[in-house]
Structure formats: structure tokens, C-alpha cells
Design goal:
Helix content is 46%, strand content 8%. By secondary structure, it is mainly alpha-helical.
Length: 100
């Protein structure tokens, strides 16, 4: 049985993929499936790939790719810039109070 995430992103299939075989074969080629609607997937770094078969889609989803780039929200980066903004505002107001 496939992971729920694979079914949600790629759809249902009777195929039982052997991800170990796919990953260990550097010459593995995914055959396009004319009945499969191409899907664009994204990774944590913002890279994208368009998959053309259910097996290819399942392989990428198994490798932590997703169909929604916002799934990789980086809260640490937002917090860093928010704190940086507060520090800058603090020093601007502190400087204004000193030079009054």
C-alpha cells in the first residue's frame, strides 16, 4: 500500500514501485504515460520538476518532493528578518532619543 501523500499528489495506481531498484540504477528511464496528466513537483530548495508518469511522480514524492511549494515554509527565516527589523527600529529610536 502506498503512502497517503503519494495517492493525494499522484493519484491511485495498482503499480507497486521498487524505489530501491530505481534509486540504484543510474540508467533508469521513466517512460511517459499518455494517460497521466503531468504534475509539477517542488523540493525544499525551490527546484521544480514536471513528471509524466505515475511511477515517476511516486518516486519523487517518496523523495520528499511535493506539489505545493508553500509546504516548505521556512519559519526560521521569517523569524530572523522579523527580529532584525525590531533591532533596527530599536536602534533608530534609541539614536533619536539620545540626540534630542
Amino acid at each position: 500500500m502506498m503512502h497517503k501523500k503519494t495517492e493525494v499528489i499522484c493519484g491511485e495506481s495498482e503499480i507497486i514501485p521498487d524505489f530501491d531498484e530505481i534509486g540504484s540504477n543510474p540508467n533508469f528511464v521513466f517512460e511517459p504515460d499518455p494517460d497521466f496528466n503531468p504534475i509539477t513537483l517542488f523540493n525544499e530548495e525551490g527546484s521544480s520538476v514536471m513528471v509524466n508518469s505515475w511511477l515517476e511522480c511516486a518516486n519523487y514524492v517518496n523523495g520528499n518532493w511535493t506539489n505545493n511549494i508553500s509546504d516548505f515554509f521556512n519559519g526560521e527565516k521569517v523569524l530572523f528578518f522579523l527580529m532584525l527589523g525590531f533591532v533596527c527600529i530599536y536602534f533608530v529610536f534609541k539614536k533619536k532619543l539620545i540626540f534630542k
